[in-house]
């Protein structure tokens, strides 16, 4: 027989980390040899440097300053390139056996644990590996059971270790206690685990173990079926975790895991995993654990002050420990004799020091000779900000060890504040039983398809059953055919049994996609509330309906909305999803009383059928003279008739339509409406045109997304819509593309919606919609497919990196034409150019919401006149919540009143049943919610208005409904459109994009009561972007009247105020609030844009001040228009370039030619040319200067300063806005880059230096250190010149560490020796930078050889470091390069180590 192979996925453990077995040596000898080996390895890493002495107790004592030993150690590793340059996340492929990790228990079952590990990994703990005590109990039970049953003892022990259950009678016979893991572990418990196995096989073999499992996994990998599944097996046994600790490590301050072995009279005996040492926890100290301890439990303990192992009977020793959470959390790891990487424990708190700030994390050192990395997810910093600025080299931190991998010598740390305090974050995802609840959206993978339903895997240990009734909306067995194993499905949880972990879920699209609040408990069923349920049965007396969480209800036959001769079984069937209204609870049946009639109008269904009948008749074959199908001739004539009907309608024409069908699409597993198919006819019905098919997409239902959602919910087959605008004829599908957007309808009526490029004028402000969004532009469409393009620079007044974050397809926008010279013209969507000065966006929202309410057949029978804006609504408090008071209103039981906290006066009663009289601020008819106010000033004003209206109104019953708002209407009639008023914010609807404000009534009002107005806080182009801070309740604003109250907007008074990228500033109080100009129309704004011609004089207001320019709003300040800003590429910008110089403004007013100041063009610049400019910014060792609106350049630090000290104070010498005189050094026309020098130099000298591309030999030049390594020091002299300093040309004499003190980013003074002939043009980091196409591509191809020797005139930080270390110069070294001919056999030379 051949040699047996190890199981698949197993990794042989290194000899250094032996977990057991004999080596032939005594333990003392073996430990001594290990310590000597580790000491020898550390000495090798120190590169010959003598280690410091150690204090008694193992703490290191450096020979010089504190930290010198650690600095020298890591400096040596840095020179050798052995320190990490990036953070490597923990993945399954780089895990190894023996790796120790810190994790949290997320799932607990009686026989297995699931642990959440760093970086998204999961670990599985078998029963026998949960603790050492459980391992011993499992082994004893298996052995006793095997002896009783006559089985093989070894096989039984292996079965117990794998967590397999024994026969029922065996455990009872052996009387060995095997408690379930649910009694010993809790979800969220922090544990330390050791990787014992890594398995990768098919999903069906995930539970396999041992050799059989390995064979199955290998067969699965070689076969065609089954997806591979990776599994990490962990052990929580302290004997494996603490195997690297010895008795000498058990000293004050050490924290380590322990296992309860037994319960004694005065305390608990603990297993510490340290050979020969046990732990003892007194019962008084055990009370701090917060739970009753039992054998097999794991807990973290700490060695108290003065604690040390004490001899005990039997040759062992006992260590007294404590388990107080604060003592364990504050225990800091310390050095001890024999400390190595195998002794480090995950979860230990260490004092760390930042060694380097990497691109993706931190490199830290701790305990002198150990280093670890911190990944971005464990920095404990705000990643949205620049987290690199929060850390710096040599910064001292406290960190915890996240994991230790002895095989790869990798250690990871965490700085997360919760983990530092040894606790879990509040939002830590607990995936145990408590996380799955009824009504919760979940997703999983279908594991099996059975006759009784689907088995879906939600997690590795939680399965859910989808009954046949809930597999589809129909609820038949045929629906199971569309599912297969491995398919991902999304649904909602129906019921949960935490004891058995049994979960049922539903996949019904109508139930999963319901927007109504689910009923998962009886407490969720509020009388009057609506929710979706599933019919489970129908009888003659009613319909049974089930909800989530096992809640059921009965709808009596009188509440089913059926005809007199119709019975429930004829109209309802099991599995049908219905919308229910809760009437109350039924104590006799422990269920709910329900109603399936959501609108108590009996004629609603009949009316819908009446409207749909003509449409069905028109669409039927043979109707309206159409031939019946049955031959090619009939089909051809039908297509010809459809084409003729389509051709009779033109883009821009107004039509009406009736909904014929609703087409859906699947989004996140649920069916949602995509577009409505309409039967289109001419508007008004006066034309004899044939009916055509129309396509009305959801995005074209309204300008506002909330209004579009309301219309989608209200529209059904047979609904009548109009007027509609024909946007385009879709010839391929024989349909008309329609829109209902108010902005497009208004623009088309005014003739401002173009359909050809010839009708587009530059500067015109047009209404359109977003046709598509790409990564670099947004395309805006108008009539008949006419499309304009808005580039990234034209999308917003702020920086745009991804247009998808700012705009959506179908969104209504206003666009300003900036370039109409080409076939595809360009537009701008900036709010500063396209912002509306009216309330058109808000007006369309309220108008469309009223239209949706009129179309809805599902609305409650509510008389909304009783809830008029500004009227009084009596009621009583139902419940007090954190977000306000919920009130029951007398006018209608199904309407809920909500009083926000800031609308309640101080001291107001919150007790349920308290009577209130509140003022209506706003009404949401779709949701049946009314926003109220209890402020005394508003209530008193509304009551006075109602009293005045009652006095003027005849006491007729029909007029009583209008009496409450009569005073408000009279006061509103005194206002005029365009009038400016001061208003105060009362309520903010941020999601809807408006706020409710109060404003004083017009002069002469008999009541003097305040009016309510509605002010927009967003605009067409700002629907999906954060444009400004919304106003808050109590803010004072200045607004103008945009539209008076009308039934179309629900009786709301609409106001207008500028909405832009900056916060709205209220107008000054001085001057009063007189009548202002009316808001300009789109046509007037377009004409105004066309008036800003070059040479004109306009009025402007300074909006914002930047370093070198100011943003202007064309309003007050007199400026002269110079033209449009031109980019470096020569393209015209949409922003106007203006001048406030007196001579320019005077010439513009007189109509004369403007005095032009010469602005340099990048293409015309030459090296050596002098330029006048201004400092724009100073960053990363460069001074950026602006020479014109489109030309800017950079000066390297060495070309802007004359000394090292000036380079280091670059930011203090140059301030933004400071005038400078610059000399052109190099012009890169291809990359539009300009390098200049700010040093005073003659143009001829600068031109010659630029032509040469490098300084001449012997030149003393400033430079910046870019890299330090064994090959020397790399120094950048300028933007186009780089050099190398050999190790022998840094000091005049030999020093112990020639590179000490040098770091990248330091400035130095070097002497040019000549070209570096030993380096190829493409070698080194600079060459790699040129290949990558960075800004260094313009650098000279040749590299220079430099010298930093003080005798030659060089200066650097290494000279001072050498003086401090050696106190003087070493032996002199000859200058220049050493030639081979100068060497003789036996000659002594001094050299520097540059590679090892």
TrEMBL record:
SUPFAM superfamilies documented for this protein: Nucleic acid-binding proteins
Annotated region described as Disordered, given as residue ranges: 1-24, 1065-1092, 1316-1337
A biological-process GO annotation: rRNA processing
Domain spans labelled S1 motif: 347-416, 439-508, 528-597, 763-832, 870-935, 1168-1239, 1258-1349
GO MF assignments: RNA binding
Stretches with biased composition (Polar residues): 1082-1092, 1317-1326
InterPro entries per UniProt: NA-bd_OB-fold, OB_Rrp5, Rrp5, Rrp5_S1, S1_domain
GO CC, alphabetical: small-subunit processome
Gene3D superfamilies: Nucleic acid-binding proteins (2.40.50.140)
SMART domains found in the cross-reference section: S1 (SM00316)
Superkingdom assignment: Eukaryota
Pfam families per the UniProt record, alphabetical: OB_RRP5, S1_RRP5
Name by which UniProt lists this protein: S1 motif domain-containing protein
Lineage: Eukaryota, Viridiplantae, Chlorophyta, core chlorophytes, Trebouxiophyceae
């Amino acid at each position: 027989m051949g040699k047996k192979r190890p199981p698949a996925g197993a990794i042989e453990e290194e000899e250094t980390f032996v977990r057991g077995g004999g080596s032939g040596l005594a333990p003392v000898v073996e430990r001594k040899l290990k310590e000597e080996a580790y000491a020898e390895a550390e000495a090798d890493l120190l590169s010959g440097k003598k280690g410091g002495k150690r204090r008694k107790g193992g703490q290191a004592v450096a020979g010089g300053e504190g930290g010198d030993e650690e600095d020298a150690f890591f400096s040596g590793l840095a020179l050798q390139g052995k320190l990490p340059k990036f953070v490597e996340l923990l993945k399954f492929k780089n895990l190894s056996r023996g790796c120790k990790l810190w994790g949290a228990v997320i799932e607990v079952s009686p026989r297995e644990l699931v642990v959440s590990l760093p970086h998204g990994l999961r670990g599985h703990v078998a029963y026998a590996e949960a603790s050492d005590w459980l391992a011993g109990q499992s082994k004893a039970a298996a052995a006793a059971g095997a002896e009783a049953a006559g089985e093989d003892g070894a096989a039984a022990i292996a079965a117990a270790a794998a967590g397999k259950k024994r026969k029922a009678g065996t455990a009872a016979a052996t009387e060995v206690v095997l408690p379930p893991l649910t009694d010993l572990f809790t979800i969220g418990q922090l544990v330390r685990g050791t990787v014992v196995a890594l398995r990768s096989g098919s999903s069906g073999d995930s539970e396999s173990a041992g050799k059989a499992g390995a064979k199955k996994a290998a067969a699965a990998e070689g076969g065609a079926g089954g997806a591979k599944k990776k599994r990490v097996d962990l052990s929580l046994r302290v004997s494996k975790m603490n195997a690297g600790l010895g008795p000498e490590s058990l000293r004050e301050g050490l924290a380590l895991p322990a296992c309860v072995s037994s319960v004694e009279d005065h305390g608990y005996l603990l297993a510490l995993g340290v050979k020969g040492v046990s732990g003892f926890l007194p019962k008084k100290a055990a009370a701090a654990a917060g739970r009753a301890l039992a054998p097999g439990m794991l807990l973290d303990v700490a060695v108290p002050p003065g604690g040390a192992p004490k001899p005990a009977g039997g040759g062992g020793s006992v260590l007294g420990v404590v388990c107080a959470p604060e003592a364990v959390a504050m225990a800091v790891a310390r050095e001890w004799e024999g400390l190595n990487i195998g002794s480090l424990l995950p979860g230990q708190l260490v004092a760390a020091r930042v060694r380097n700030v990497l691109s993706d994390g931190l490199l830290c050192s701790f305990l002198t000779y150990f280093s670890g990395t911190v990944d971005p997810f464990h920095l404990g910093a705000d990643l949205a900000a620049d987290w690199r600025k929060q850390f710096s080299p040599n910064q001292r931190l406290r960190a915890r060890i996240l994991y230790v991998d002895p095989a790869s010598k990798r250690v990871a740390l965490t700085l997360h504040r919760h983990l530092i305090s040894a606790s879990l974050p509040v939002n830590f995802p607990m995936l145990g039983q408590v996380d799955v609840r009824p009504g919760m959206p979940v997703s999983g993978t279908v594991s099996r398809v059975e006759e009784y339903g689907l088995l879906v895997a939600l997690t590795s240990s939680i399965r859910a059953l989808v009954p046949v009734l809930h597999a589809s909306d129909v609820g038949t067995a045929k629906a199971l055919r569309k599912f297969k194993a491995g398919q991902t499905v999304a649904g909602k949880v129906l019921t949960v049994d935490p004891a058995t972990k049994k979960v049922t879920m539903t996949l019904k699209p109508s139930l999963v996609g319901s927007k109504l609040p689910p009923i998962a408990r009886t407490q969720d069923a509020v009388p009057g509330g609506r929710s979706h349920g599933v019919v489970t049965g129908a009888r003659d007396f009613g319909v049974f309906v089930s909800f989530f969480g096992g809640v059921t209800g009965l709808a009596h036959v009188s509440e089913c909305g059926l005809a007199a001769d119709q019975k429930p079984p004829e109209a309802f069937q099991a599995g049908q999803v219905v919308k229910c209204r809760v009437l109350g609870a039924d104590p006799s049946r422990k269920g709910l009383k329900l109603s399936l009639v959501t609108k108590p109008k009996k004629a609603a269904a009949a009316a819908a059928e009446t409207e749909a009948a003509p449409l069905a008749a028109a669409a039927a074959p043979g109707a309206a003279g159409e031939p019946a199908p049955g031959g090619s001739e009939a089909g051809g004539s039908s297509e010809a008739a459809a084409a003729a009907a389509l051709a009779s309608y033109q883009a821009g024409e107004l039509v009406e339509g009736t909904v014929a069908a609703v087409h859906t699409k699947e989004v996140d597993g649920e069916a949602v409406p995509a577009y409505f198919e309409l039967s289109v006819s001419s508007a008004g019905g006066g034309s004899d045109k044939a009916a055509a098919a129309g396509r009305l997409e959801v995005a074209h239902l309204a300008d506002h997304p909330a209004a579009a959602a309301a219309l989608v919910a209200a529209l059904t087959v047979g609904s009548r819509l109009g007027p509609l605008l024909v946007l385009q004829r879709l010839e391929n599908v024989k349909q008309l593309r329609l829109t209902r957007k108010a902005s497009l309808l208004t623009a088309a009526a005014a003739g401002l919606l173009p359909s050809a490029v010839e009708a587009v004028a530059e500067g015109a402000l047009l209404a359109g919609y977003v046709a598509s969004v790409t990564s670099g532009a947004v395309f805006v469409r108008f009539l008949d497919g006419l499309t304009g393009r808005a580039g990234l620079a034209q999308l917003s007044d702020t920086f745009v990196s991804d247009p998808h974050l700012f705009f959506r397809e179908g969104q209504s926008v206003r666009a300003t034409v900036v370039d109409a010279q080409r076939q595809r013209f360009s537009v701008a969507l900036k709010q500063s150019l396209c912002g509306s000065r009216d309330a058109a966006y808000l007006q369309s929202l309220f108008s469309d919401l009223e239209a949706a309410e009129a179309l809805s057949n599902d609305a409650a029978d509510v008389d909304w006149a009783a809830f008029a804006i500004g009227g009084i609504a009596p009621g009583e408090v139902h419940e007090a919540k954190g977000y306000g008071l919920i009130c029951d209103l007398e006018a209608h039981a199904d309407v809920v009143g909500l009083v926000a906290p800031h609308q309640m006066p101080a001291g107001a009663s919150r007790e349920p049943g308290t009577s209130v009289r509140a003022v209506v601020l706003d009404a949401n008819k779709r949701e049946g919610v009314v926003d109220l106010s209890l402020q005394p000033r508003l209530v008193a004003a509304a009551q006075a208005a109602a009293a005045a209206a009652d006095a003027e109104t005849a006491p007729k019953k029909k007029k009583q409904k209008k009496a409450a708002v009569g005073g408000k209407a009279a006061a509103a009639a005194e206002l005029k459109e365009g009038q400016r008023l001061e208003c105060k914010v009362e309520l903010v609807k941020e999601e809807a994009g408006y706020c409710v404000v109060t404003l004083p009534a017009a002069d002469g009002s008999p009541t003097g009561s305040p009016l309510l107005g509605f002010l927009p806080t967003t605009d067409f182009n700002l629907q999906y972007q954060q444009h400004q801070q919304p106003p808050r309740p109590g803010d004072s604003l200045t607004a103008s009247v945009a539209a008076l109250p009308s039934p179309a907007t629900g009786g709301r008074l609409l106001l207008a105020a500028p909405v832009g990228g900056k916060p709205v500033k209220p107008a000054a109080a001085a001057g009063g609030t007189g009548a202002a100009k009316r808001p300009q129309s789109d046509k007037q704004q377009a004409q105004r844009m066309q008036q800003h011609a070059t040479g004109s004089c306009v009025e402007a207001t300074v909006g914002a001040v930047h370093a070198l320019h100011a943003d202007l709003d064309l309003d007050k300040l007199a400026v002269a228009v110079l033209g449009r800003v031109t980019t470096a590429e020569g393209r015209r910008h949409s922003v106007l370039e203006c001048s406030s110089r007196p001579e320019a403004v005077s010439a513009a007013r007189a109509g004369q030619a403007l005095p032009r100041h010469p602005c340099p063009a990048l293409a015309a610049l030459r090296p050596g040319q002098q330029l006048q400019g201004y400092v724009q910014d100073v960053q990363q060792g460069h001074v950026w200067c602006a020479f014109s609106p489109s030309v800017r350049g950079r000066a390297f630090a060495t070309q802007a300063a004359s000394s090292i000290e000036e380079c280091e104070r670059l930011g203090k010498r140059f301030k933004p806005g400071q005038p400078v005189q610059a000399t052109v050094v190099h012009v890169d026309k291809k990359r539009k880059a300009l390098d200049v020098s700010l040093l005073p130099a003659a143009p001829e000298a600068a031109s010659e230096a630029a032509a040469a591309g490098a300084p001449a030999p012997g030149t003393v030049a400033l430079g910046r250190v870019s890299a330090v390594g064994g090959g020397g020091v790399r120094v950048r002299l300028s933007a186009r010149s780089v050099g190398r300093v050999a190790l022998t040309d840094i000091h005049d004499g030999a020093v112990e560490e020639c590179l000490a003190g040098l770091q990248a980013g330091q400035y130095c003074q070097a002497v040019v020796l000549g070209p570096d002939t030993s380096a190829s043009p493409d070698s080194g980091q600079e060459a790699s930078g040129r290949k990558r196409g960075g800004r260094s591509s313009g650098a000279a191809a040749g590299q220079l050889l430099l010298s930093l020797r003080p005798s030659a005139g060089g200066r650097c930080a290494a000279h001072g470091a050498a003086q401090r270390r050696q106190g003087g110069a070493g032996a002199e070294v000859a200058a220049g390069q050493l030639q081979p001919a100068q060497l003789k056999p036996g000659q002594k030379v001094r050299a520097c180590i540059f590679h090892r």
